Amino acid sequence: MRRLTLTAQFGILSAVLMAALGIGFNADLLDAITLATLYLVQLVFVARAARKLRLQVEENEYQALHDTLTSLPNRTLFRDRVEQAILQARREDSRFSLLIMDLDRFKEINDTLGHRNGDLILQAIGPRLRGVLRDVDSIARFGGDEFAVLLPGAANSDAALRVAGKIATALSRPFMLKGLTLDVEASIGISLFPDHGGDVDTLVQRADVAMYMAKEAHAGFEVYAADRDQNTPKRLALLGELRRALENRELVLFYQPKADIKTGKVNGVEALLRWQHPEHGLIFPDDFIPLAEHTGLIRPLTLYVLNSALEQSYLWQQQGLTLNIAVNLSARNLLDSELPDDVARLLDTWHVDPSLLKLEITENTIMLDPPKALEVLTKLRDLGVGLSIDDFGTGYSSLSYLRKLPVEELKIDRSFVMSMTQSENDQQIVRSTIDLSRNMGLKVVAEGVETKEIWHDLAELGCDVAQGYYLTRPIPPQELVEWLAKPIDTPVLEKARGRKKASGLKAL
User: Fold this and answer.
1) What are the strands, taking DSSP E only, across 310-459?
2) Number of Cβ within a 10 Å radius of residue 41
3) Degrees (nearest 5) of the Cα angle 354, 357, 361?
4) Which of 45, 157, 458, 491 gives a 20 to 30 Å CA spacing to 420?
5) What is the torsion angle, in degrees rounded to the nearest 10, for the CA atoms of residue 151, residue 152, residue 156 and residue 161?
6) In Å, how far are 51, 420, 449 from 469, measured between CA atoms?
7) Rounded to an integer, what distance in angstroms lies between the CA atom of residue 345 and that of residue 306?
8) How much is the pLDDT for 492?
9) Helix-helix angle 298-318:477-484, to 10 degrees
């Protein structure tokens, strides 16, 4: 039997209805009732579909403007609200504040308790903030553990700092998570309109800079200060290009030899990062490393450098050349609990013996978070990787703490070495550092060795290794191989002194 059409079904229904009401059969009336019934039913269907579609559109719009985990406004909606605040402030000649905040050591919670528990902490942040903010204030989650707050009524730094203090106090109350008591702290950066910017991007960027100032100073919260901001427009433009540079392998490593100060024999090199920019030429790391440290790029950048250095070590070994390679680490690397695993993986990938890799860290880097630094350094030491304290003498570290670190080498900062023949104070610092290294059972390396006189003075003081332009400037891998083919003895060192100096700034 064929299935009846919808119209036929409603026609039969209408006829049955007419019979039930005692209405005699009338074809015209039947058609009218059928069409009216069909229209009403279709109208109901259309209304339901339209309502469902409207709800779906509203849901899509909500999801597009809100964070799925916390239900807080996302970056897009927050940006729109800041733009509206700017327009209102200009109309009324008023001011407002913007806060950028991230949670300190949140990664440790994720690593230790799992991402699900980390998500529960993030979901609890909004209610904590809402409890100390006004209804007119806006809270947003930018992603990860980064949040933003718009304070329309905070017209000056004092008002913004008071709110930041309330936020810090609210977050300082322990979070209860499955029977565990967790302490969560935050670093907060503050920018003011119009003092620190007249558009959304500038205000957010400068609050972000202030947040990193607070993090580095362990201050909890800071107001943006132009005299402490090293981010020039040129550097900000470079930051936008840096991710592309990583993908296109525009970042290259140069290598500077490290030689035994008694024999002149080279047994190691330091890897120094350069950016071979397609438009600006060779860019030194002081122009982009600080920016990477203040963003999520420092981790992939560090892994890029380590991978490149270990790949080069493998290639050199294939040529019969075995050299220790030193790579510099940044402050944020020592807060990364995954770093030892990353290093182990890369060593295995390139079949490089761990003893051929040396990682250099500065005193100030270590002292930013001594317990965490000790944990990461101990894991690296257990891999068999060498560890060195770079730029020794420029920091404010405790010698009693340094004795606990699993390091094997101290590097005297170049500023003392380069002036030791002119400054008695600097010479005494060099001498004391060498004596200290001896007493601690550490090897000592002098950077910035540029003359034969300094080389000989260091040898008399008992320094182990020298590095600097007296040997050679940092050079590309192939050029280093050619340079090493020459006998490294006193005549060569004498000749090396006259080589043209090139500006070289240290990177990772």
Assistant:
1) 324-328, 357-362, 386-392, 409-412, 443-446
2) 12
3) 125
4) 491
5) -10
6) 76, 16, 6
7) 11
8) 40
9) 40
